[in-house]
């Protein structure tokens, strides 16, 4: 009989039937909201905690601490609870209430930093706590276990489920763990596969998608592993998230809307192909926001 951790990964790949434009291009959605914690971050969280335990980095008296915009915090809180590890999650104060309550339900302590400081402020707070002692920061932005989990699971699943016919992979870029790991695996199978990252356009705020200042650029990010970057406007990501819910019955967040928007834009530029887009999480994470107003 399976335990919760056995349910991490092996998420469905479903074809979009209604929002697509080029009928010679198939666009598939990788449904990461089907992970037990509700997002793609379950994979990274499991990989990072498992790796730290195996290396003996989590010892008695040490607490985990992590800065996150939400999904990683939920995943870490869920998996830390299974291993009996204390964890403190640091987020900007504009995080949705659903996320805070979910983390607390799993037993995590939640610290909210000023929203004006964005994720950089949450990262700075977590780093200060680690420097003071008694904390271990798994650091999803710099931790190789993040991308390694996607290399070991997400990439092979996509390759298998498309029968090796995938031509383009599209993913939002936040910590960049998903796109780094999947890129490494898919390029090994077929170097011609195009890896496309999504970033917010100037002035756009899309939870889960970032354009990092150089000083905060994730260390796991390798620019050469991405063939192209597509900028997405917040309005377009919002509209596509709503369309996915109403037309495809895919209830997801704004970053997923951004990913699919980029995939559809890409499909208009090619004659034929198979595009896979990451659906990062579920829409119920955003019900207290104005996303679905």
Helices and strands in order:
Layout: E1 13-15, E2 25-31, H1 41-54, E3 63-67, H2 71-83, E4 87-92, H3 97-105, E5 109-113, H4 118-132, E6 135-137, H5 144-161, E7 168-172, H6 177-189, E8 194-200, E9 228-232, H7 234-248, H8 254-267, E10 273-279
Helix pairs in contact: 1-2, 1-5, 2-3, 5-6, 7-8
Write a short abstract of this structure.
The protein is an alpha/beta fold and 293 residues long.
What Rg, in angstroms, do the CA atoms define? 18 Å
SS elements, strand count: 10
How many H/I helices?
8
Shape: globular
- Average per-residue pLDDT, rounded, comes to 95
Proportion of helical residues: 25-40%
Largest sheet: 6 strands, mixed
DSSP strand content: 15-25%
Query: Helices and strands, in N-to-C order?
Result: EEHEHEHEHEHEHEEHHE
- Termini Cα gap: 41 Å
Give the spatial strand order of the biggest sheet.
1-2-10-7-8-9
Question: Can you characterise this structure?
Answer:
The structure is a single chain. By secondary structure, this protein is an alpha/beta fold. The protein has eight helices and ten strands. It has a six-stranded mixed sheet. Strand 7 (168-172), helix 6 and strand 8 (194-200) form a beta-alpha-beta unit. Helix 1 packs across helix 5 (144-161), helix 2 runs parallel beside helix 3 (97-105) and helix 5 crosses helix 6. The termini are far apart. The mean pLDDT is 95. It holds the Pfam family PALP. Pathway: Amino-acid biosynthesis; L-cysteine biosynthesis; L-cysteine from L-serine: step 2/2. Pyridoxal 5'-phosphate binds at residues 71, 174-178, 255. It catalyses: O-acetyl-L-serine + hydrogen sulfide = L-cysteine + acetate.
């Amino acid at each position: 009989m399976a335990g919760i951790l056995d349910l991490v990964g092996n998420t469905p790949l479903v074809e979009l039937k209604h929002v697509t434009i080029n009928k010679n291009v198939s666009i598939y959605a990788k449904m990461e909201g089907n992970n037990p914690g509700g997002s793609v971050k379950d994979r990274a969280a499991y990989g990072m905690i498992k790796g730290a335990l195996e290396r003996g980095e989590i010892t008695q008296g040490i607490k985990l601490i992590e800065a996150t915009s939400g999904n990683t915090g939920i995943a870490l809180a869920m998996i830390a609870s299974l291993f009996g590890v204390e964890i403190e999650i640091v987020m900007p104060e504009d995080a949705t209430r659903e996320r805070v309550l979910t983390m607390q339900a799993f037993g995590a302590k939640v610290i909210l930093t000023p929203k004006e400081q964005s994720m950089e402020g949450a990262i700075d707070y977590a780093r200060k706590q680690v420097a003071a002692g008694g904390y271990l920061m798994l650091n999803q932005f710099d931790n190789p276990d993040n991308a390694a989990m996607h290399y070991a699971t997400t990439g092979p699943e996509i390759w298998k489920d498309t029968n090796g016919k995938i031509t383009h992979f599209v993913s939002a870029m936040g910590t960049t763990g998903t796109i780094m790991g999947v890129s490494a695996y898919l390029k090994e199978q077929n170097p011609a596969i195009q890896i496309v990252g999504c970033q917010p356009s100037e002035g756009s705020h899309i939870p889960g998608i970032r354009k990092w200042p150089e000083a905060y650029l994730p260390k796991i990010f390798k620019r050469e592993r991405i063939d192209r970057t597509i900028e997405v406007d917040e309005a377009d990501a919002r509209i596509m998230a709503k369309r996915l819910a109403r037309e495809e019955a895919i209830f997801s967040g704004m970053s997923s809307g951004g990913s699919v928007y980029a995939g559809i834009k890409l499909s208009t530029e090619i004659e034929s192909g198979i595009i896979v887009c990451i659906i990062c999480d579920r829409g119920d994470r955003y019900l207290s926001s104005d996303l679905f107003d």
